Amino acid sequence: MSVAAMPSRPVRKRLLEANPSVAWFLAILALFCLGVTALAEATGTGALSTSMIKTLGKTLCLCLVALAMDVVWGYQGILSLGHMAFFGLGGYAIGMWLMYARTEIIVAESLAEAAIPPTPAEIEDAIATQIFGVVGSDQFPAIWAFADSLVLQLAMVVAVPGLLALVFGWLAFRSRVTGVYLSILTQAMTLALSLYLFQNDSGLRGNNGLSGLQNLPGLDAVDQATVSIAFFYASAAALAAGYLLFAWVTSGKMGSVIRAIRDDEARVRFLGYHVESYKLFVFTLTAVVAGIAGALYYPQAGIINPAELAPIASIYLAVWVAIGGRGRLYGAVIGAAFVSLLSSWFTGGGAPDVDLGVYTIRWTDWWLVLLGVSFVLTTLYAPKGLGGLIDVIEARRARRRVGDYGPDKGALRREEGPPQ
Amino acid sequence: MTTLLEVSGVSVTFDGFRAIDNLSIQIGEPELRAVIGPNGAGKTTFMDIVTGKTRPDTGRVTWGERSISLLGLSESAIAREGIGRKFQKPTVFEAQSVRDNLAMSLRNDRAPWKVLVWRETEADAARIAEVAEEIGLTAHLARPAGELSHGQKQWLEIGMLLAQEPRLLLVDEPAAGMTPAEREHTTDLLKRIAATRAVVVVEHDMEFVRRLGCKVTVLHEGSVLAEGSIDHVTADRQVIDVYLGR
Asked: Which residues belong to any copy of the ABC transporter domain (chain B) (predicted)?
């Protein structure tokens, strides 16, 4: 075999050929970033408030986790109701460092005025009391062992969701649990995790969660406007990288095999592919990406608590992907951006109430009903979701051909078109 | 001809129903073998056991020169050992192109990280072209497999099997849904493959089996009723009684 003698084409070219959406997506994302830069408080006219920049940055993170969900659900066929738990774990991992490092600075400042310089142990105790006083503890739990190291906590952002997904996936896939049972299992995992975190002795401050995450330790001098645009850029870069990564994974032979597993996993086994390894690979990879998305999201949100990991969050994620159109990467992005922004508009009181005379529809209460109905309608009547609109546009853009159709790529017959 | 697959003393019970009862079959390499039998004779269960889908209660299934046992292996490991299977109902990946279906079946490394970085070599492309030519789907490579006719899907599945380059092919009713000309093509193809490999054909159609001109194993109630040439088994009193006579 002349494998070595093969002229190798660059991966990027092949990737773009296989996925025309990649170039479009990156271009639109770049334009969006330019627009936001021009309007942001720190870098431009200030037409967009700092909180708006944070909302947009958070939305980009949600788009990233939706991408991961689309790959695991739309491409691989596993309706995971646990990916927002991985997202939350990424948030907790970075939140621990943010909280520790900031508290350490505050404690150091207050103890600096003491007559006798404090010992390291005293400082440690003071930090622990400061952080855990709210749950009646003054000791650091074991899981905070690395909280003083940014590098180690960043490693945790990847390692904790990754390991959980690896172990959970290994147990679930090897016993060949599929379909709705697998979904229920992932939901059970999510529920167990969030219930555990609600406990005060979970070591993560129970239902108080971690707060003050928007304040970056040592960067008090930098205003939130600058911090917000920096996080916005980081989120956009992560989304772009995630899109490229997943476009690569879902194209080529890997994409072929994982879609084949979605459609008929027994048949794939008889082709010699170890289906469980593929599922585990996709499940773990997407969990890691979800963790990274969460680590970018929560410093912008400022607070994380166990409710963020509750199963309902993962169900929302599935709804976004379904409405956006699963099985296509841009569909997930459209769905997450559209629905989450719309959701904050409705629940934030932006939508005007509808007065029906006998009853007033308050959108803060009725938004979820509207979302539920649109989810059902999308599933029933537009299974391709919002992304399906792109197909309609593409079909319209394709030149209408008249006259003799002539030989076409893949066509075997010649036939007459409608008269000119 | 050396023995490639040896099934000996295998029994399987499903909810008290004995689907396979002390079954013993030997397949050589190369060999073309037809397995016939009435519905419920255990033909499909026999294939399920060999391919690892069903675990037998008792008995042994050994494979290859080193006589390794297939019973401890997963379906995918058995497929990688070189056993390919074609299902009765054509099962191709309808959402994907004919080309992707064949590319997935090519005999390459199946490990996820190898598949992730896999790129089609010239040898792969040539192999796909060769198989497509053999199954008459060259002009359809770019089409989604779901658009193919029933017969073409049968061919595609045979093509996927060829691309796998197995040592043993288990083929379940290959001629179902084919035109007479296609059946003839199938017979030729199976004979040609069987010159270098082991091929086991499960078939209902006696005429088709006769044209294969190979050793025939007749199954009945989960065990071998008769074995030999088509003329030998069709002359067998018992076979006539349980199968042909009806």
From this structure: 5-246
